[in-house]
Design a protein that fits this description.
The protein has helices at about 210-245, 250-265, 270-275, 280-310, 320-345, 350-365; strands spanning about 5-10, 15-20, 25-30, 30-35, 40-45, 50-55, 60-65, 70-75, 90, 95-100, 110-120, 140-145, 145-155, 155-170, 175-180, 180-185, 190-195, 200-205. The chain is an alpha+beta fold. Strands 10, 11, 12, 13 and 14 form a five-stranded antiparallel sheet that branches. Strands 9-16-17 form a three-stranded mixed sheet, with no helix packed on it. A two-stranded antiparallel ribbon has the order 1-4.
């Protein structure tokens, strides 16, 4: 038949007997299954049986031909099966998916074995479609010829197909094997599916895929290292400059570096975190003490520079009288006296120990 296939469910008939019009007759029942291969009206032709028997009355060997009547069958494809490439028609389908022992890591050239067994009730093995495993780039798949097996037991038939697959690893990388879907149509139950187990395979070694990842990781680590080096170098440079300024008593540069480091460290976001912390009171007292030391140095420098500026504003002319010079000298002495009083009150130089503690606390040394 061009539109369907006919197949015997079993190679053996079911023998029996019955009485018709007072005569005992022998009987045989053959199960013939029809498998449509396309939708539409299918004409089943006559089936011819050639019977050879011995006549009980005469004892002669006779032959007789029996012709079964033709049939018309309408086949249709259910809507849920449209788009499904391969499926089995059976009320019960069982699948066994056996893999070789897994490894934590694989190497190039390793082999993974897989055995798949599909069993379907009331379906011959020849009508179970071959299994098509998912193909993965980087792994070679070798499929052996499937083994077919049919089983019949008191009118119950079962078909089984066994397929052995071998995966050969060609390239390093991360792979996902398996995960295929086995579909079958259950009469009266509709479409059924069984998704097979997935197997994750990690193959060590260098590949283009993980090479890009390693390159990006190295670039990121290199960039982070440069940033940390720049921060540390910059911090070290500021600290060395401030330490040198303290040693040579360059107060202007020392104060400038202190305030510069202070402005960088105490940003609004860090100040907010300090205020929200549990020891913000202790931290506040510490910062206040550091600020007091820095202010004392600032006032000392301010008072000293103010006194020097007042002294240098005096003008002396050789043509002026001694009285004028005496007055200028008296005025200068008054200025020195006032400057000394201002210096003693507001411009006392902090001790070197306090300045060293301030330097270390500011730069966290």
């Amino acid at each position: 038949m061009s539109s369907a296939r006919l197949a015997k469910a079993s190679d053996f008939a079911i023998n029996g007997s019955k009485r018709v019009a007072g005569k005992t007759l022998a009987s045989q029942i053959w199960d013939v299954e029809l498998y449509p291969e396309q939708s539409g009206l299918i004409g089943v032709p006559n089936i011819v049986f050639a019977i050879h028997y011995v006549d009980a009355d005469s004892g002669k060997s006779l032959s007789r031909t029996i012709v079964a009547e033709p049939m018309l069958v309408f086949a249709y494809l259910p809507e849920s099966l449209k788009g499904t490439a391969a499926y089995i028609v059976s009320d019960n389908v069982q699948v066994e998916d056996n893999w070789s022992e897994p490894k934590s890591e694989y190497q190039q050239g390793d082999i993974i074995k897989r055995t798949l067994i599909i069993t379907a009730d009331d379906t011959p093995a020849s009508h179970i479609p071959p299994f098509h495993a998912k193909i993965v780039d980087g792994i070679t798949l070798v499929v052996k010829e499937p083994q077919l097996e049919n089983e019949n037991n008191r009118g119950e038939s079962r078909g089984q197909i066994t397929q052995e697959l071998t995966y050969i690893i060609d390239k390093p990388g991360d792979y996902v094997l398996g995960g295929e879907v086995i579909s079958w149509w259950q009469l009266g139950g509709g479409l059924k599916q069984n998704r097979l187990e997935q197997r994750y395979v990690a193959v060590i070694g260098f590949s283009i895929k993980n090479g890009y990842q390693i390159l990006l990781l190295l670039l990121g680590c290199g960039l982070l290292g440069l940033i940390l080096f720049w921060i540390r170098t910059r911090k070290s440079t500021l600290y060395k400059q401030a330490k040198h300024a303290l040693a040579v008593k360059d107060w202007l540069l020392f104060i400038s570096l202190m305030y510069r480091k202070h402005d960088e460290s105490v940003s609004p976001s860090r100040l907010k975190l300090q205020l929200q912390s549990e020891d913000n009171a202790k931290q506040g007292r510490k910062v206040e003490k550091q600020t007091e030391t820095l202010n004392r140095l600032f006032y000392y420098l301010f008072s000293k520079n103010s006194a020097v500026e007042l002294k240098t504003t005096q003008r002396h002319s050789p043509n002026e009288s001694r009285v004028t010079n005496h007055a200028s000298s008296t005025e200068t002495n008054d200025i020195d006296k006032n400057s000394s009083e201002f210096k003693s009150k507001e411009g006392k130089l902090p001790s070197k120990s306090d300045l060293t503690k301030l330097l270390k606390a500011t730069f966290k040394q």
